[in-house]
């Protein structure tokens, strides 16, 4: 590894130490459906967002709830203390498309219709409110 690449990698590692996030990769749900749920909790207080996700009847909300719990746990582990209600916020949540499974479905007159089974990657960042304002 070259010197410049090593330096930039070390800088990236240092920046990661002050970020509190969790990633969920290759979720077999379309990104559009996941974004509908992600938009509900973006910018919300973390424990309130957990309540919203718990009582949402969307299938993607159960996965996002588990991911949010993981991000809160990561924050607690890095700060070596428990998160209090009203302290943590969902600073950003990003839903990106992942690999797409391409299948064929039988159609009339010997044709085949293409079926695209989509999946996505979700990255969720949490942080305290006073850090966001800086």
Describe the structure.
The chain is α+β, with helices and mostly antiparallel strands and 134 residues long. The protein is 45% helix and 29% strand. It has a three-stranded antiparallel sheet. Helix 3 runs antiparallel to helix 4. The protein is flat, with a radius of gyration of 19 Å. The two termini are 34 Å apart.
Attribute tags:
single chain; 134 residues; alpha+beta; two-stranded antiparallel ribbon
Topology (elements, then pairings):
Elements (H helix, E strand, L loop, with lengths): L2 H15 L2 E8 L3 H11 L4 H9 L4 H21 L8 E10 L3 E6 L5 E6 L2 E9 H4 L2
Antiparallel strand pairs: 1-5, 2-5, 3-4
Helix pairs in contact: 3-4
- Give the beta-strand count: 5
Structural class: alpha+beta
Strand order in space, largest sheet: 1-5-2
Rounded to the nearest angstrom, the distance between the terminal CA atoms is 34 Å
What string gives the helices and strands in order?
A: HEHHHEEEEH
Rg over CA atoms: 19 Å
Low-confidence sequence ranges = none
Give the percentage of residues in beta strands.
25-35%
Helix content: 40-55%
Largest sheet: number of strands, sense, barrel closure: 3 strands, antiparallel
User: Which term fits the overall shape?
Assistant: flat
Mean pLDDT: 93
Total of DSSP H or I helical runs spanning 4+ residues: 5
């Amino acid at each position: 590894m070259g010197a410049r690449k090593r330096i930039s990698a070390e800088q990236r590692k240092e920046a990661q130490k002050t970020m509190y996030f969790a990633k969920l990769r290759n979720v077999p749900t379309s990104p559009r459906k996941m974004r509908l749920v992600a938009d509900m909790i973006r910018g919300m207080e973390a424990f309130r967002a957990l309540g919203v996700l718990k009582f949402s009847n969307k299938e993607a909300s159960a996965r996002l709830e588990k991911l949010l719990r993981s991000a809160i746990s990561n924050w607690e582990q890095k700060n070596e203390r428990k998160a209090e209600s009203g302290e943590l916020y969902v600073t950003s949540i990003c839903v990106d498309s992942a690999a797409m499974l391409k299948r064929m479905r039988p159609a009339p007159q010997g044709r085949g219709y293409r079926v695209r089974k989509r999946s996505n990657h979700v990255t969720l960042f949490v942080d305290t409110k006073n850090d966001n304002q800086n």
